[in-house]
Amino acid sequence: MILGHAATTLVGRRVAPEMPWWLLFASAFLIDIAMFTFVALGVETMEPTGADGPSLATNVIEMTFSHDLVPQIGWTLLAGAIAFAVTRHRLFAGVAMALSLGHWLGDLVSGYGHHVFGPDSHPLGTDWYHLNLPAALTFEAALGVLCVFIFTRGRSFSTPAQTGLYALFGVVPFVFLIV
Fold this sequence. Notes:
Helices cover 64% and strands 6% of the residues.
């Protein structure tokens, strides 16, 4: 859900227009930043596999500390704490928390499977990246279109700008079907 997570920052910007873009993106991608850090440290694993090369559908991934339910509570609170520490705005802290939690909820619908805490705990989510990649990407594209609609509604955007946003978030996710 790379583009889906990025699209949610548009809604965050609509809610808090003065919130810095970097903080919106950091909040929306906090658990992925944690995951890549943990993978680099050997704490979590992400192993691209597949006879035709790596793809979303063939990754073997374990994300206990970055994406499971129990740690997500901490990541959501951390996103809010960082936003408040940097800006001293409660609204920005709330938006940061919503973006972090929204990332996790979006992944439940169209990402890899998650668990309560660890691979031996109760599984959560659809695991559509493995089981139904077209459905996952359709959800991501629909989320992107909704976010662009919310962001642009009632505002002046040129037709090329709007078309570009809709194409980026509503069409580009399907590129992952061919790579």
